[in-house]
Amino acid sequence: MAGRIKRRISEQLHEAAQAQQEVIVICPLCTREIPESEMESHHLIPKSKGGRDTEYLHRICHRQIHALFTETELARHYQSVEALLEHPEIASFVKWLANKPPDFYERATKSQRTRKR
């Protein structure tokens, strides 16, 4: 009897663990589902500028943000997802990305404006 109870408890714990893993995370920038392999944490205000709050984003979205903006620009002008979405280059990027599958990834190219010389 004790064996069946332990087995049932073990099965219930396993099912509960699987249910927790199936949490769907939506990227606040592109509003697509984020696969676990493509999930990155973005500090809304860079840590170097005293930021603590983070958002989970697609890797491609996160890399695009850092390709377009310096940390100072992020800290001063783009402290929220809404502020990022108002920028024309981010809006264009999100529109382009809308029809791509959730696991799509392409390298972001650093903006000429933010490259160090």
Keywords:
about 120 residues, mainly alpha, DNA Binding (I), subunit A, two-stranded antiparallel ribbon, 5 helices, 2 strands, about 45% helix
Task: Write the SSE topology.
Blueprint: H1 2-21, E1 39-43, E2 54-58, H2 59-68, H3 71-77, H4 81-86, H5 88-97
Antiparallel strand pairs: 1-2
Structure write-up:
This protein has 117 residues and is mainly α. The protein has one domain: DNA Binding (I), subunit A. Helices cover 45% and strands 9% of the residues. Strands 1-2 form a two-stranded antiparallel ribbon.
- Determine the N-to-C terminus distance: 73 Å
Percent of sequence in beta strands: 5-15%
Strand order of the largest sheet: 1-2
Sheet having the most strands: 2 strands, antiparallel
Looking at the structure, the CATH topology is DNA Binding (I), subunit A
User: Share of helix among residues?
Assistant: 40-55%
Radius of gyration: 19 Å
Number of domains: 1
What's the oligomerization state?
single chain
Mean pLDDT: 83
Number of strands: 2
Shape designation? elongated
Give the name of the CATH architecture.
Orthogonal Bundle
Provide the CATH top-level class: Mainly Alpha
Helical region count? 5
The class by helix and strand makeup works out as mainly alpha
Point out poorly predicted stretches.
none
Elements, N to C (H/E): HEEHHHH
